[in-house]
Design brief:
Length: 483
């Protein structure tokens, strides 16, 4: 997106001089300053369901611009900062409502056992990393005698890496790194998570000495998780895992369902669960590899409120919401699909990411890998799952939050037009046609100004809510609605 300070100011002024500019700017502000808005042609009619009388009409043909702008809705901050901020806020509300209640979730859920767990990928080869001790950087990977690997490269690294060192996450020896295994891990990470959520109930049942069916008559395990890319190009998952009664968040779990019990069940299940995948065709059988979670599993209880320290509900919700707007670009790759193999050489990515992308394309051309769709997901380094998911009864849904916001905006729009909402039943009929996307010459500057204004207003509102909450005059900010 063009920066306001590098835009062609002549084109910016020229756009502002056009007669449709006031209405266009109003529509851009309504999208939150979307970086790549969708242009639509069409019309909408609202009719009284009983009489058939048309009570409201809207046509893009009557607009000064000749079209209607709507937000792209992209969750990635690298693609659209405006829409990703809305997505982040919605994700925050989704997570916090499952921890504190609100948004249709009973407040009693705040007393249920819950933990924040981080599941990592296993090692596919040593990589450069930054280690700290008492705030002081340590040597990356010291090895006594400085041995060499089979490729003649050092097996270790004595560099004290800075936080912005571009070597962080890159293999110490690229030829020793198992790129096929790493790509297949990313491709099967979603399946490994599914197996975990299935088997954790079995583990809890074994801990209690009852059958799985008996356990499900006493409790339910709910979760919400987000995927994050490590600098080495592998995904790991952050998840809120909660125990409810059999009827969901409004039903208290049995007294024996405690945080320590849940912690032990998560660790046992993560250690045992596995997925088997092929890494190449050798004869009729092929070579098989067993994919498991990494050894670094972190499980912490989630506390209510912000005065206890540790992993509080607000901190967990903000952490998950932040990573919901990030993609594989944080691991040094691109945020768009690689459609032809000849593009790979010229991509502005790290060499480690380039090798992983090449591996995705190479594996996609081998028999037995077609179902993984590695070619389509090469820009994601093989990961093809959803970045954020939740169980059905964890909390509200993103769709419900968006509908509340849409209803609020529609109500405000009707009020601005002098239309009075009443209780009569209506039917809406509409027809829309795609007319293009993105901004024209000189428009990015004004869209960025609108985005900054909207973002500033939201930040001020959140700060005021937190100030009122600390003074005891309002509920926690996570419980308020975000329009």
């Amino acid at each position: 997106m063009t920066s306001p300070f590098t835009a062609d100011m002549y084109a910016v002024a020229e756009r502002a001089a056009l007669p449709d500019f006031p209405r266009w700017r109003q529509m851009v502000k309504a999208t939150g300053g979307c970086a790549q808005p969708i242009r639509l042609h069409g019309e909408r009619y609202v009719a009284d369901a009983r009489t058939g009388e048309i009570v409201e009409t809207y046509r893009t043909a009557d607009e000064p611009t000749g079209y209607l702008l709507t937000a792209c809705g992209n969750r990635r901050a690298s693609r659209c900062p405006a829409c990703s901020e809305v997505y982040r806020d919605d994700t925050f509300h989704l997570i916090i409502s499952g921890l504190q209640g609100g948004k249709g979730v009973p407040e009693e859920v705040s007393g249920h056992p819950r933990v924040f767990a981080t599941f990592t990928a296993p090692s596919f080869g040593p990589v450069h990393s930054r280690r700290d001790r008492a705030g002081k950087a340590m040597s990356c990977r010291p090895r006594r005698g400085d041995p060499l690997c089979v490729h003649g490269r050092p097996e270790g690294c004595r560099v004290r890496h800075s936080e912005d060192d571009t070597r962080l996450g890159q293999p110490i020896c690229p030829d020793c790194f198992d790129y096929s295994g790493a790509v297949l891990w990313n491709a099967h990470a979603g399946e490994l998570w599914r197996c975990f959520t299935r088997d954790v109930l079995t583990t809890l049942a074994h801990q209690r000495g009852v059958s799985r069916a008996e356990l499900r008559r006493n409790l339910r395990v709910s979760y919400a998780k987000v995927a994050e890319y490590q600098t080495r190009g592998l995904v790991h998952f952050h998840a809120v895992i909660r125990v409810d009664g059999p009827d969901g968040p409004g039903d208290p779990p049995p007294t024996w369902a405690t945080v320590p019990l849940l912690d032990e069940a998560i660790r046992r299940t993560a250690e045992r669960v596995k997925v088997t995948a092929s890494t190449g065709v050798r004869g009729d059988e092929g070579r098989r590899v067993v994919l498991r979670w990494g050894r670094q599993l972190d499980v912490q209880p989630v506390y209510l409120g912000a005065e206890l320290g540790g992993m509080t509900d607000g901190r967990v919700a903000a952490y998950i919401a932040k990573y919901a707007t990030k993609g594989a670009e944080s691991a040094g790759t691109v945020d768009r699909r690689v459609r032809r193999p000849e593009q790979i050489e010229n991509l502005k990515v790290s060499e480690h990411a380039r090798r992983m992308i090449y591996t995705c394309w190479a594996l996609s051309m081998m028999p037995g890998f077609e179902h993984l769709q590695l070619k389509q997901w090469a820009h994601m380094l093989g990961f093809r799952g959803h970045f954020s998911t939740k169980s059905r009864q964890y909390s509200t849904t993103l769709g419900a939050l968006r509908q509340v916001r849409a209803d609020y905006r529609a109500s405000m729009a009707r009020a601005s037009l002098g239309l009075v909402d009443d209780d009569r039943e209506t039917v809406t009929m509409s027809q829309w046609r795609y007319a293009g996307s993105g901004h024209g010459k000189g428009e990015h500057f004004w869209a960025e100004i609108a985005r900054q204004q909207v973002s500033t207003a939201r930040r001020i509102k959140r700060e005021n809510e937190r100030r009122e909450w600390r003074a005891g005059e309002a509920p926690y900010p996570g419980q308020t609605s975000s329009h």
